[in-house]
Write the structure tokens for this entry.
Amino acid sequence: MIMKTSWMKLSIGVVLMAAAHVADATLNVVATLPDLGALAQAVGGPRVQVACLAQPTEDPHFVEPKPSLVVKLSRAGVLLEGGAELEKGWLEPLLDRARNPRIAVGAPGRVACNAQITLLEIPTALDRSQGDLHASGNPHYLVDPLNAKLVAAQIAAAFSRLDVDGTAEYQARLKSFQERLDAAYAGCRKLLEPFKGRHLAAYHNSWLYFANRFDLKIDIFLEPKPGLPPTPAHLATVATRIKAEQVPAILLDPYLDRRSAEMVAERTGAKVVEVAQYPGSLKGTEGDYIKLMDANVRAIARAFASGREGGK
């Protein structure tokens, strides 16, 4: 009986501690995607309570609109969205059900994180025959670490507007994060410098901004058009090009079809390299944008180093 009572006291203590932590957080933040959530936590620290809608290994284009996500949105004081229509298909129905004026369009708590980003691949015309194009441009901009610096600054500014008393803390944490990111980025550039100008293949066109930032060429895709599944004829064409250009690796996000990538790899000798846009997708990167960037760069550098020479 004494042991049972002790366990009950311990359990109650844990619950109270957790409740106190939530109470200490000034801002209840919901991020649509885990990369935004990681940046929010880095900038907000103990003044924010961060929840994400999409899971790290979930396709950001197709998130299941579960009732639990409506609850998160209904309680949010801040909503961080990637924008550029990436979440459009699933976020709006959730917001309609949540009915939360604090995060409505135009409200101070609604933060479109692409606002300061120069988006690439903006189509001149929308044509469904060209696949799943985004009218605002390619939405996968946070694989570029310098874009992450811009978004972190935007998040810090939004938090400061909503929680004026925390402004100094948000700015200090932003400065610390950006300094750590700069140092990590310099190391990543050094790792990839020997492979400047080299080609890589990818399943989906998620790595454009990464390629531009690190002076690589990622322009061979297993999808015949964005969002369309690979066909045997297209995979054969891709395999021919990979061989001709001596491409050492095929980049594959966790939520994409591994079988197609492995099929091409077997035909060509290229390696399937697991990379991810979202912290937590790769082991050891949970909630940490910088660790994820480092993991991606190291995986790609290893693939280049162990692959065939040439291929420029």
About this structure: The longest strand covers residues 27-31. Confidence is low (pLDDT under 50) at residues 1-23, 308-312.
